[in-house]
Amino acid sequence: MQIQDSAHYAYGETWNGHDHVFFTVFDCTVDIEKLQEGPFMVTLVDEPGPQDCARCLATLDYSGNKKYHVRVGL
Length: 74
Known about the structure:
With 74 residues, the chain is of the alpha+beta class. The protein contains two helices and four strands; from the N terminus they run E-E-H-E-H-E. The model has no long low-confidence stretch (mean pLDDT 85).
């Protein structure tokens, strides 16, 4: 994910040519099509939501250091 708010850039890193990014896995209850409509807010959380569907398990190979669990708020 890419952080758009400069106040929170410290939570991201530069990885693979992208600035202010971090890795997360969306839980199975998140409507990905809704997220693709534009920017959205997330909250960092300690525990992940359900992540046992094929979509959640098919993640990209991220070798960066910034990885967080998030809760999506639209």
